[in-house]
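Revision sheet: structure tokens.
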Amino acid sequence: MQRLRTTVARLRPITATQTAKSQSQARPTAVGGALRTFEPMRSYTASVSAEPFLNGTSSNYVKEMYYAWLENPRSVHKSWDIFFRNANAGGSPGAANQSPPPLGGAALGLANAQAMVGTQPNVEKLVEDHLAVQSLVRAYQVRGHHILDPLGILAGPPSSDIITSNEKLGFYGLDETDLDKVFRLPTTTFIGGSESALPLREIISRLEMAYCQSIGVEFMFINDLEQCQWIRHKFERPGVMQFTLEEKRTLLTRMVRSTRFEEFLQRKWSSEKRFGLEGCESLIPALKTIIDKSSMNGVESIIMGMPHRGRLNVLANVIRKELDQIFCQFDSKLEAADEGSGDVKYHLGMWHRRINRVTDRNITLSLMANPSHLEAVDPVVQGKTKAEQFYCGDTEGKRVMSILLHGDAAFAGQGVVYETFHLSDLPSYTTHGTVHVVVNNQVTHPATPPTALSITAPTPLEGYLQPPTYHPETRPSIAHKISATVCYRRNGHNEMDEPMFTQPLMYKQIKMQKGVLQKYYEKLLAEGAVSRQDYEEEIAKYDKICEEAHARSEDEKILHIKHWLDSPWPGFFNVDGHPKSMTSLSTGLPEEELVHIGYMASSVPVEDFTIHRGLSRILKGRAAMVGQRVCDWALGEYMAFGSLLKEGTHIRLSGQDVERGTFSHRHHVLHDQNIDKRICIPMNHISPNQAPYTVCNSSLSEYGVLGFELGFAMASPNALVLWEAQFGDFHNTAQCIIDQFICPGQAKWVRQNGIVLLLPHGMEGMGPEHSSARPERFLQMCNEDPDTYPEFAVRQLYDCNWIIVNCSTPANYFHVLRRQILQPFRKPLIVFTPKSLLRHPEAKSSFDDMLPGTHFQRLIPDSGPVCEKPEGVKRIVFCTGKVYYELIRERNNRGNDDTVAIARIEQLSPFPFDQVKVETDRYPNADLVWCQEEHKNQGYYDYVKPRLRTTVDRTRPVWYVGRGPAAAPATGNKVAHLVELQRFLDTAFNLDAFTEQS
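Predicted:
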């Protein structure tokens, strides 16, 4: 009875009123997932009683009503309620039928009620007892998983007010005299197996076996009745959770490897941080069983993401990384053989294709590298999974799947988890299901749950998409159903931590705990499944493997980071990992191809498709531009995309409102005005054998979506993957992905990536949240030395960590997109795209700038009258982006065409030292001025100034023109914006300004 007392005590928060209410809300009259409204009793009861409802002789309608009544008497009409009460008490069909209450809703008269109770004294008790048992069953189903407590500390220390089981049962209206009474089981449970009724004592025993042993399941929040019944069927049937002798031995072997690996590391490197798995060693057999079951069902590739705790163990015993490669990471004297800065051992990833010994099938396992930003890897894993599914034609997620591991506190507390969940059902982002494994440490970083978690369980998000959540304790059984493992950290946050500082009671309990391997071995030994000799031989075998690997690791003198690649691109690089060629190829196209793509961009290649009248005008305008041999920004992008698709490059463009374009300029998806949800994507009609074009509006997320697109770009170098921010300013909510993955990804993990970020940028008086894409942040993170003049421009591209451009012409945008794929390596590309220039009459390009032989222009020199007498030019103004057109307009108004030269730096990183030098040498008597519309402490100035000075060997000063320093990116007042603009334009063309300053 002690177990019953403990269990019922934990289940107490479910009150009778709450139970009836929740039952009514979850399934008031639910049959097959549909809601039923039961009519008042009319002629149905002429020849029926309660008993046939269970043996199938009654109509299904009446049977369903009876089951609904058992759950909640208020879910049926009052007439049926009276009938079922009397029939259950043994009344004959005629006696059971009573007239319903008046239609006015008045209660049954006192005399009638007293008469009924007097003649049927057991009716009320019978109904109440059935409802009480139903409430008890539901309480186990809803809250049974809270019983799991491997340390025995969740309920606190023993208390003197332990209440007897009789009083606990009394909470449900039952007492100990009811334990041996037989109760008919409700249809919402399968604990009876083939039996339809059981004694209450047996009911409780079977519920404990189903929900309160080494596994609990959290599923009653799911609205789908069929799913709930499926889970009940799997968990509640007696004798289901049984393992064969071979399965038990396999689990023991995996537990030996998991446990002894950690113990070996602790012996050899006791003072090294490794974020070991002690206290949750059962995670390894759990993951391996998930992989086994997936492989049995046809999965060929699994992409995994996880935090640092247990990563080395997963690499060794799940991915099967060579142990000597892991052990050599502990050698502080190891020299790096590869480029890049590298990363700590518990951040690295791995890719491995091997035979699954359980299924004898090949399976590819990838563990993605990620930083200490815990859940940041979640969307990256999902994106890579989606890409692999896309490239192998897996439209249902049956060949490629993902597994995400989480710490309990991070899973509950990091917003990117929600963002990633939100993507899971969107057509262009779904991976058709993910296995989430939450490692419930019962302790967050060094903080205890009450101070770091405002919830009672680590999985509060499961109610959002309603996946079932399983809560096993640290035991390897039923690992293939794991979702949240309840465990502990034996060594605290890391091996150098002293957890007794903050969790003294918990760690007193932990020190007294036997390891899970020892517990499992003793269980199997008692069953006769293994012998002591078998166990000791298994341990000796793995210890020998570790020792031999350690000996080999000591011979390692060089660290090969490329052995830790999580996304290799076979065939893309040469054997030595360098590009196949370092030459700069032309990115131009024949005019007939430009014309073909241009007219396709101006048409609707589907018959009987009605587009909006406003869109008709836009398409006619495009056609007119093609006839005039010019293109604007949207058409230049169309031509770059269309040509790459024709050449076999898959393109994926994602972001908020990218299908139309935030500024209604793109219109890559056309919508039929007469047929709902009928669309046309002209870009997919460029050529018969073209690659597919994917353009998809994303959810209102930056962090999660950018991570997803980054992961998608990792899968293949032969795809152009672009993410566009709605406004460039909004990338700051994805800063973690930029800072931790995109900027240093190649340096930390030797992993090239060609993702493109399109960030609308420009000061148009639209306020501080819609003006600046914060170019200073990207430029500050460039790895280029501002004081060193480079020798080889193409080598600059290869050596940089990313490429940053601010194109001022559609042609240059066209070229930089094509160069992104045609160059023999991959670098992230950051493009500060325009807003007002999308329709600016001067921001158009001739087809002549896009023909064969043309290239991306890293710098566009002044081609006006200043070129005729360069010695007479008094000032050369360097600038980038939109401000060029404002400078040109001001120069024309002032008539300074022959005294002030204006040069546009289109590629900021890597900096075009060579081309800037040509310009500064051309105008030997000119002041050097950097002009920007951004504030002085923002924008490009701090990045450009030292590089301009290096270019001229510090022989000439560099002057600044622009707005003064400010905290916000822009003013919110349009008049103030225009005043600021005119002020710095006046300074730019005041030829005496800097003479006076000097």
